[in-house]
Design brief:
The structure is a homodimer of 151-residue chains.
Chain A (H helix, E strand, L loop, with lengths): L3 H12 L5 H8 L3 H13 L3 E8 L8 E9 L4 H13 L3 E7 L5 E7 L5 H11 L2 E15 L7
Antiparallel strand pairs in A: 2-4, 2-5, 3-4
Helix pairs in contact in A: 2-3
The structure holds a DNA duplex (17 and 17 nucleotides).
Chain lengths: 151, 151
DNA sequence: ATTGAAAGGGTGTCGAT
DNA sequence: ATCGACACCCTTTCAAT
């Protein structure tokens, strides 16, 4: 369903979607037109969702990242729905996942500075009751692959 | 240095970098050529780093995400360097940040299945001694903005 | 310095061989 | 898969503000 050649193309495009078809073709030993068809196929079948611009967060005034762990007030469908609604309304919360273990949710918050976290915290507690909320500031990005381990 | 119009353009491009200049121009009330120039400036000045393809992880056989918290064995320059080197060598570890608080590092691991985590764990402990290692499996993605809160 | 209109060039796409 | 023609879109130039 997905040949090694397709994976190689995906690997190129996840690093730079502006790569000319001629360059892609040279790397995977295919003609530019054939690459075009493969890529169209990958798009139609949902392997490639869309192309996006990678913006330098620091450059646009959002250098700070805070991870927040949350444990639920109650384990009920109502609380879950309310929590989902709360985080959806706060744009600084850019990612929320539900986890196994004693911590229920992990939130990634992107901000101009650590001082701004207080705003997000207050916005959150105003919308939903939580058992525990624990914020950790990102001091350093050790690895940012931003790329999937393909192949 | 960065007008509201520039932010609007960035907001469009971080969602879909294939948006034609004519469409962008219509939204920000600018001609396509003017948009082209603005974007070129944004690239040159480092606001836009590059364009990348968003790949559907599940579709390419990597549906599982595991977050791992690590506390250091010792707080020394040597350990830190060795840890940095260790995570750099393991492709499944796609993101590593150093945090404030009792947990030193947060790792994001992308895998075909939860069973594959054991491989990553063993690869990690073979390379670096750690005080505590704690893995939490992502059960559900509640919010995946994948977009910065601009404007 | 920044804009819009029009010309020019590059690149992707589609057909035929 | 290669070749060639077409079409589209981005880019550049130029006059104007």
């Amino acid at each position: 369903m997905l040949t090694p050649r397709d994976l190689a193309i995906l690997d190129i495009l996840q690093r730079d979607s502006d790569t000319p078809l001629a360059d892609i073709g040279a790397k995977v030993h295919l003609s530019p037109s054939a690459c075009s068809r493969r890529i169209a196929h990958l798009r139609e079948n949902g392997y490639i969702r869309r192309n996006v611009a990678m913006i330098d967060r620091a450059r646009v005034g959002l250098p700070t990242t805070v991870f927040v762990t949350v444990s639920a007030r109650t384990h009920s469908a109502g609380w879950t729905e309310q929590f989902r609604h709360a985080v959806a309304q706060i744009p600084e919360i850019v990612e929320v996942v539900r986890l196994t273990g004693s911590i229920d949710y992990l939130l990634r918050v992107v901000l101009p500075s650590v001082d701004d976290y207080d705003r997000v915290y207050k916005a959150l507690v105003a919308r939903i009751e939580m058992n525990t909320v624990n914020a950790s500031i990102v001091m350093e990005t050790v690895k940012a692959a931003e790329t999937l381990p393909l192949g």
